[in-house]
Each structure stands twice: as structure tokens, then as C-alpha cells.
Design brief:
globular, 143 residues, five-stranded parallel beta sheet, single chain, 4 helices, two-stranded antiparallel ribbon
């Protein structure tokens, strides 16, 4: 796939996009599929979709939480506790909700962003998570 003149290659990692804006979700799902990811999308009522999903990376908007009344950090911490998947957070709320450095995520991307940047971040997070799993699995076999 060519993104702004760059050629980006990705493995067939699976990605769940949790975004309550239908247009943004559709654009992200299409762009990530075009890049070679296996992608599912979930909207504002994402609880069941997230619970049933097993994959490599979750991409979520900080306010796409199915638990809208809970603080953003609590929602993301809860996601991290339930999944071995990487977590990429998209936010347009620069400092309005939380300091991005305090979010329990593998990566935080500020909106607006370039799709090519998101693709690169997802691939890096997926690779890092896979490598960490392989190292921990190797150590447990050696014990």
C-alpha cells in the first residue's frame, strides 16, 4: 500500500477499531484493511464486541468508551486488564480529559493524524506485543 508516497508493509495482524463516529470508524476500518490488517469495527455500544474479540491491537478513541460515565483512564485500565492485545489511543482532547502520558496505552496519537502514521504505530505495537509474548513464553518453557 502506498501512503503519501511511502510503501508500508504490514503482517496480517488483527485490529479492533472502537470509535463512536460512524464516518471516522468506516474510514479507519477501510484504510487499515487496505493496508493489510484484518479489521473489525465497533461503535459506541462496543461492550459486547470488545468482550468477544480476540486479536492483536485495539484502537480506540478516548471517548468511545461503552462506559461513558466512567473516567477515561478507568476505561482504558479496564481494557488493559482484560486483553493481551496492544492498545492505541486516539484523542483530540489535548489535555482536556487526561494527560496523554498518564494513559495506560502502548501508544497515544493526537488527532488529527495521518493514516500512514497510525498504520506504522499499529504495526510497531503489534510487533512489540508479539515479541514480548514470545520472550515470556520462551522463559516459561525454559523453567
Amino acid at each position: 500500500m502506498s501512503v503519501l508516497g511511502e510503501v508500508i508493509t504490514v503482517d496480517r495482524w488483527s485490529v479492533l477499531v472502537v470509535e463512536d463516529d460512524n464516518d471516522i470508524r468506516a474510514t479507519l476500518v477501510e484504510g487499515l484493511r487496505d493496508a493489510g490488517f484484518v479489521v473489525e469495527g465497533a461503535g459506541a455500544a462496543a461492550g459486547a464486541a470488545v468482550d468477544a474479540w480476540h486479536g492483536d491491537v485495539i484502537v480506540t478513541d478516548t471517548f468511545s468508551s461503552p462506559y461513558r460515565t466512567e473516567p477515561v483512564v478507568a476505561y482504558l485500565t479496564e481494557l488493559r486488564s482484560r486483553f493481551a492485545a496492544g492498545l492505541v489511543v486516539l484523542t483530540g482532547h489535548n489535555g482536556a480529559a487526561v494527560d496523554a502520558a498518564q494513559l495506560p496505552a502502548d501508544a497515544v496519537i493526537m488527532k488529527p493524524f495521518d493514516l500512514g502514521d497510525l498504520i506504522g504505530v499499529i504495526a510497531t505495537v503489534a510487533r512489540d506485543r508479539r515479541d514480548r509474548y514470545a520472550r515470556s513464553h520462551d522463559r516459561s518453557l525454559a523453567s
